Structures are given as structure tokens and as C-alpha cells.
Amino acid sequence: MRQSHRERTVGPWAKQKLDALESYLIAYQNVMKRWSFRLVYVDAFAGAGEFRLREYASVDSQDIGASLLDVDDDEEVLDDEDLVGIEEFVKGSPVRALSLDRPFDHYRFIDLDASRAQLLQDLQRDFPNLEIKAINDDANVAVQHIAKNFGAPDLRGVAFLDPYGAHLHWETLEALAKTKKFDVIINIPVHMAMNRLVRIDGKNEARDVEQMDKAFGCHDWHDVCYTVSGDLFAGERQIKVSDAPKQLLDLYVQRLRGIFSKVSQPSLVTNRRNCPLYYLIWAGENGTGLKIAEHILGLGDKVKVPRRKSV
Ligand SMILES: C[S@@+](CC[C@H](N)C(=O)[O-])C[C@H]1O[C@@H](n2cnc3c(N)ncnc32)[C@H](O)[C@@H]1O
């Protein structure tokens, strides 16, 4: 089968994530307008600002999952034969955040890919009145730097942490939590990445173990994913538990509850054939934020962005 390496294309399920994000940002701004805080939006795995949404036909969801995931560089690779055609251009998270009726005071967009970082900086032309800084760096380094310098008492922020893979380090979440000033919305790529890094036979690659340790900030993911079976002749064997994705999610949520005061229920995002892809979750310090996030994330794929005044 011919393969396309199509830059900046994603599946329809991304819309659910973006609609949930935008709805949250609108509600956040409505609450925060009562205060005189300087508000900062941090998009840590920001993408290119805009991408093409693709429509799929006659392909098994598992195949979509596999073709999406058998890539190392975070691009979504799809078979041409699986694609019906381009459905529409979709505004990515940075453009959605910039287009709010009530925008943030400062925008920080981070992407490891230099050309994407440039596209993000170019958004300044479309939004000349907003303060935008694109950072071409590893999100963990950049966000930890931002968190360390978030001491001014009038600063508050929202951080959207949306990696394709298990690239968000626990240390980064700890740094954001420590400020007590950030609401975070996290894409936890349980099925798309984490569960795939945990091998059935327990013979995990050292680099995968390191990645999982960094993503969870501990090695407990290993204990929850395996049981040990005693074998008289072959010795002990590690066997991956059948509900490893659930175990990984539960561990992640439990650990989030250890560093943030409030954590929402995770919201599963699936593809059209109900194949689980990832979870969205909100964490922060504020009860109102939690209530809003629970409502929005609880809508799942029924989430709709409230009508705008100006667009
Ligand atoms: C899921 S996409 C972002 C989509 C975007 N949030 C949106 O909704 O429009 C993930 C992005 O993360 C970037 N990326 C991957 N690893 C990264 C890292 N360690 N630090 C920063 N960006 C990274 C990729 O280049 C890619 O553009």
C-alpha cells in the first residue's frame, strides 16, 4: 500500500479535543474577567496552528490506530487508500486560543519542530494586537522555565498539554502544579502511546522504560501493568495484565491528585469506530474551574463551542 506522510493532518477525533479546549477557555475568561489578573495561555505541544481534518472510509479502526501510531516523529501517517479526501481545514489549539472574544494577555506556543514554531510565530501577523511568543524547544524544558518564572502575584494561566506520544514529563506537571496558578488540560495518550510502550512479554526496550518513567515520574507503571507467573522449568515470567490501559490511567489520575488540589474525571476520546485513543483531563486549584471542566469533558463528543459574538 502506498503511504503518505502528510504533514499537519489529523483525524476527526481531534475536533472533540479542540471543542472541549475552546469551550473551557471561553468559560475561564468569563470567570476571570471579574479579577484583574494578567492571563497567560501556554500551548506546550502547539502544532502548526492549523491542520487538515481527514475523512476515512472502509478501514478498520485498528488499522487507523496502527497506521497512526507506527511513527516515531509524531506525524500521523495514513494510507492513501484509506483516505476519502480532505474534509476541511481546522483551526488548531493556538488559533482557537488566539480567536477568543476575550483573549489572553500573553501567549506562549511551544513546538520542537522548527518550521511549526515559525508558523506559530507568524500568527502574530494575523493577531497584531496580541502578545505572542513561539518557542522552538522541548516542551518540558520550556514549560518548566515558564513555571519557574511565574512568581508575579497577578499572573494566572491555562496550560494545554497535548502530546501525540508519551512526551510530557511528570516533572513538568509538578512544576506547573507548584505555581498554584495554572489550570492544566492534559491529553493522556494511554492507548495511542503509553500502553504500546509496555510489551506483552515484559521485555521492554530501555528507551521505552525511560520514557514511561519520565511520563509517570516513577516506575509504578511497571508494577500495575504486569503480574509475575511462576514457572517451575522456565523460572518467573512477567505477564501483562489484560486491563493495562485502565491501570495506567488510574495510576496517572491518582498521581495527578497528589500534586493538584482538584482533578476532573478523565474523558475518553475515541475514533469513529469507538476505538479508544486518549483521555482528556483537567487539573488545577479552583473549584469553579473543576465544575466547568467536569461539565465540558462530561459532554464527550457532544461538546459544542458556545456561539461567538465576533466570528
Ligand atoms: C498533537 S500535536 C499538537 C496539536 C495541537 N495541540 C492542536 O490541537 O492544534 C503535537 C505537536 O507536538 C510537537 N512535539 C512533539 N514532541 C515535542 C516536544 N518534546 N516538545 C515540544 N513539542 C513537541 C510536534 O511537533 C507536534 O506539532
Secondary structure layout plus pairing:
Blueprint: E1 3-5, E2 9-10, H1 13-32, E3 38-43, E4 50-56, H2 61-69, E5 77-79, E6 83-91, H3 93-98, E7 106-110, H4 114-126, E8 132-135, H5 139-148, E9 155-161, H6 170-179, E10 182-188, H7 190-197, H8 206-216, H9 220-225, E11 226-229, E12 237-240, H10 244-259, E13 262-263, E14 267-270, E15 276-284, H11 287-298
Parallel strand pairs: 2-4, 3-7, 3-9, 7-8, 9-10
Antiparallel strand pairs: 1-5, 4-6, 10-15, 11-12, 13-15, 14-15
Helix pairs in contact: 1-11, 5-6, 7-10
The structure holds S-adenosylmethionine.
S-adenosylmethionine (SAM) binds at residues 18, 45-47, 74, 92-93, 110-113, 116, 138-139, 162-164, 167.
Cα radius of gyration in angstroms:
20 Å
Write down how many β-strands occur, each being a DSSP E stretch of 2 or more residues: 15
Helix content: 25-40%
Number of domains: 1
CATH architecture: 3-Layer(aba) Sandwich
The topology string of helices and strands comes to EEHEEHEEHEHEHEHEHHHEEHEEEH
Cα-to-Cα separation, first versus last residue:
42 Å
* Mean pLDDT metric: 86
Walkthrough of the structure:
This protein is an alpha/beta fold. It has a single domain, classed as Rossmann fold (3-Layer(aba) Sandwich). It has eleven helices and 15 strands. Strands 3, 7, 8, 9, 10, 13, 14 and 15 form an eight-stranded mixed β-sheet that branches. The chain has a three-stranded mixed β-sheet with strand order 2-4-6. The protein has a two-stranded antiparallel sheet with strand order 1-5. A hairpin with a 7-residue loop joins strand 11 (226-229) and strand 12 (237-240). Helix 1 packs antiparallel against helix 11, helix 5 (139-148) runs parallel beside helix 6 (170-179) and helix 7 (190-197) crosses helix 10 (244-259). The N and C termini lie far apart (42 Å). Residues 1-7 and 56-87 have low confidence and may be disordered. S-adenosylmethionine is lined by residues 18, 45-47, 74, 92-93, 110-113, 116, 138-139, 162-164, 167.
